């Protein structure tokens, strides 16, 4: 009897162990099921490279190039801000900060990671957006730049904590060897620690960027939501994620528009899948 | 030849600057919300329904809705996540299947939150016909926080020393008895930390509940799990972008309640972890 009970429990554990694979597959399948329906009426090429997104005009124009460029612009901006600051902060925490300060800083970074994106969006709306408007003399502060700055803050916790881990796991002997040869602390960090931790830092940067591409609420609240091809970082843009969030509520279930939003979902899923698999490869390389 | 110590000082100054550039804005964000949000908090704000098109009254239905959603998500995600963590830490071998499971967890953690919203919409709302309901929203959030729970629980289980298991097995206990009576009790603080972090994440997310449960304006409490509900993050989004002329106090007050809820959970998780580390004897 006990044998039987244990057998059942162990099977249950195995099934739950497989749950993650099941859910990832399920998400992908359902996205495909709805999203691929679109390509019966719109060619994939026209969908990806079409220059206009007018989903409710007659006939609807469903080209997501402006949205892709919007996402790209905001992401590049956020990467330029968050990578140097994030990696710099990781080095400071891992190598320079005294133990007490180190723990406080780490808690502070966790705090930042925990702030809900809608709260960051709200704070961006009431502080950053008016600031950008006055500084650059713009008609509106809801721009790609505002989005980039806010998203940089969402990428930083990921970058800092993973890069700090990577630096921490560099063998102590490397550092001691360099110091023993007469290198200064900074020379050791720059010439020995950073190269040794490079694949982990690269993974940190990629995961940070992945977070930015997938971010929805903050970006929807502060980038202005104009679905046109952006001509400057000071212009309003709309990202892939914001488009889904803003339009799904109005799209009729089963309409072309509805399927197009799922097709955007496929694009996002594929991007995040690619980023996460590559980053995971880099992290594994480090461990070997 | 440049003086290497001067280079070092300059470099360290910039690293310190980078750190300040993160820490100061975080402090400012929290300070602004506390300074402007706290005065809006009173009993009426917390216990009343929204009135006059959300321009007055309180946020009680949104608080209750968020509590329901978070509870539902954890009821779904904790058993699956914990068993999955047990599988990875106690049963899995170093083979392709394990590698695939780990990759799936990483991917599940990386899927954009709005894509979870789409998935919840098509599977729970449309396909399984749950409609926009607390059930659909909870299940969607539950799948979203699964990776958090699995990863932290697994770490907790793996940190229980191998010798504990060996002693138990050598005394004649079966593998499941060992897990049930030795491994899990010793990993409880870590599992708790993961669960609370998952709760905090579920409470703050907006995009997954947009199309699966969130009601724009529902000035009453939900009657069943098949009812729509208001939720704090969505309510904050609505009153800051969709409804014109909402009193600033109400916006900041809502942001304050949401932030306080999420940060409180994180603080509890941090404290549990810290205490446990200090107490740990191995």
Give a quick rundown of the structure:
The complex is a heterodimer of chains A (about 290) and B (about 280). Helices cover about 75% and strands about 0% of the residues of chain A. Chain A is mostly helical and about 290 residues long.
Structural features, described:
- The complex is a heterodimer of chains A (288) and B (282).
- Chain A contains 13 helices and two strands.
- By secondary structure, chain A is an all-alpha fold.
- A two-stranded antiparallel ribbon of chain A has the order 1-2.
- The mean pLDDT of chain A is 90.
- Chain B is an all-alpha fold.
- Chain B has helices spanning 4-37, 43-47, 60-91, 96-110, 113-127, 134-158, 162-170, 175-204, 207-210, 232-242, 248-279, and strands at residues 50-51, 56-57.
- A two-stranded antiparallel ribbon of chain B has the order 1-2.
- The N and C termini of chain B lie far apart (51 Å).
- Classes of the chains: A mainly alpha (288), B mainly alpha (282).
- Chains A and B meet through helix 1, helix 2, helix 4, helix 5 and helix 6 of A and helix 1, helix 3, helix 4, helix 5 and helix 6 of B.
Outline the fold blueprint.
The complex is a heterodimer of chains A (288) and B (282).
Chain A: H1 2-17, H2 19-35, H3 44-49, E1 53-54, E2 61-62, H4 65-96, H5 99-114, H6 117-135, H7 144-168, H8 172-180, H9 185-196, H10 198-214, H11 217-222, H12 240-247, H13 256-287
Antiparallel strand pairs in A: 1-2
Chain B: H1 4-37, H2 43-47, E1 50-51, E2 56-57, H3 60-91, H4 96-110, H5 113-127, H6 134-158, H7 162-170, H8 175-204, H9 207-210, H10 232-242, H11 248-279
Antiparallel strand pairs in B: 1-2
Low-confidence runs of chain A: none
Structural class call of chain B reads mainly alpha
Strand order of the largest sheet of chain B: 1-2
Mean pLDDT of chain A equals 90
What's the SSE pattern of chain B?
HHEEHHHHHHHHH
Order of strands across the widest beta sheet of chain A?
A: 1-2
> Largest protein interface?
A-B, 87 and 87 residues
What is the 3D form of chain A? globular
Order of helices and strands of chain A: HHHEEHHHHHHHHHH
CATH class of chain A: Mainly Alpha
Helix content of chain B: over 70%
Q: Determine the N-to-C terminus distance of chain A.
A: 44 Å
**CATH homologous superfamily of chain B?**
MetI-like
Tell me the name of the CATH homologous superfamily of chain A: MetI-like
CATH topology of chain B: MetI-like fold
Here the CATH topology of chain A equals MetI-like fold
Structure annotation, total helices of chain A? 13
The outline of chain B comes out as globular
Beta content of chain B: under 5%
């Amino acid at each position: 009897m006990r044998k039987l009970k244990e057998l059942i429990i162990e099977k249950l554990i195995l099934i739950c162990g497989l749950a993650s694979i099941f859910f990832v597959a399920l998400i992908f399948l359902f996205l495909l099921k709805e999203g691929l329906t679109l390509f019966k009426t719109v060619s994939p090429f026209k969908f990806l490279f079409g220059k206009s997104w007018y989903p409710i005009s007659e006939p609807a124009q469903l080209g997501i190039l402006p949205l892709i460029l919007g996402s790209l612009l905001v992401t590049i901006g956020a990467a330029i801000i968050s990578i140097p600051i994030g990696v710099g902060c990781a080095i400071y925490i891992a190598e320079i900060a005294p133990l007490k300060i180190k723990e406080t800083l780490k808690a502070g970074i966790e705090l930042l990671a925990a702030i809900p994106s809608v709260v960051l969006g709200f704070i961006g709306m009431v502080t950053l957006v008016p600031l950008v408007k006055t500084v650059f003399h713009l008609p509106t502060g809801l721009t790609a730049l505002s989005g980039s700055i806010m998203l940089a803050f969402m990428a930083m916790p990921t970058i800092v904590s993973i890069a700090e881990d990577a630096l921490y796991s560099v063998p102590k002997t490397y550092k001691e060897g360099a110091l023993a040869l007469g290198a200064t602390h900074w020379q050791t960090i720059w010439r020995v620690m950073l190269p040794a931790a490079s694949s982990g830092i690269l993974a940190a940067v990629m995961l940070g960027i992945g977070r930015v591409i997938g971010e929805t609420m903050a970006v929807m609240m502060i980038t202005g939501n104009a679905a046109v091809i952006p001509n400057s970082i000071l212009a309003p843009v709309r990202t892939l994620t914001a488009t889904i969030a803003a339009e799904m509520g109005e799209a009729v279930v089963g309409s072309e528009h509805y399927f197009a939003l799922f097709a955007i979902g496929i694009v996002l899923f594929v991007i995040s899948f690619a980023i996460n698999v590559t980053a995971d490869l880099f992290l594994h390389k480090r461990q070997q | 030849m440049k003086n290497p110590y001067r280079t070092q000082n300059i470099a360290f100054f910039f690293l310190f600057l980078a750190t300040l550039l993160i820490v100061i804005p975080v402090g400012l964000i929290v300070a602004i919300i506390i300074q402007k949000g706290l005065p809006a908090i009173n009993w009426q704000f917390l216990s009343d329904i929204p009135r006059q098109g959300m321009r007055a009254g309180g946020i009680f239905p949104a608080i209750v809705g968020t509590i329901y959603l978070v509870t539902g998500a954890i009821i779904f995600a904790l058993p699956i996540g914990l068993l999955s963590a047990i599988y990875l830490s106690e049963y899995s071998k170093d083979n392709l299947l394990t590698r695939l499971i780990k990759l799936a967890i990483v991917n599940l953690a990386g899927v954009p939150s709005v894509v979870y919203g789409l998935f919840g919409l098509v599977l729970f709302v449309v396909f399984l016909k749950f409609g926009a309901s607390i059930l659909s929203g909870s299940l969607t959030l539950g799948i979203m926080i699964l990776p958090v729970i699995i990863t932290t629980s697994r770490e907790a289980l793996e940190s229980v020393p191998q010798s504990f298991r060996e002693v138990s097995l050598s005394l004649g206990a079966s593998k499941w008895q060992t897990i049930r009576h030795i491994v899990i009790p010793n990993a409880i603080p870590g599992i708790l930390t993961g669960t609370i972090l998952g709760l905090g994440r579920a409470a703050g997310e907006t995009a997954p509940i947009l199309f699966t449960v969130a009601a724009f304006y529902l000035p009453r409490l939900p009657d069943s799990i098949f009812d729509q509900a208001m939720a704090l993050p969505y309510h904050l989004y609505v009153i800051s972008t969709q409804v014109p002329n909402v009193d600033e106090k109400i916006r900041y007050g809502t942001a304050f309640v949401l932030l306080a809820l999420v940060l409180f959970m994180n603080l509890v998780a941090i404290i549990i972890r810290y205490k446990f580390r200090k107490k740990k004897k191995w």
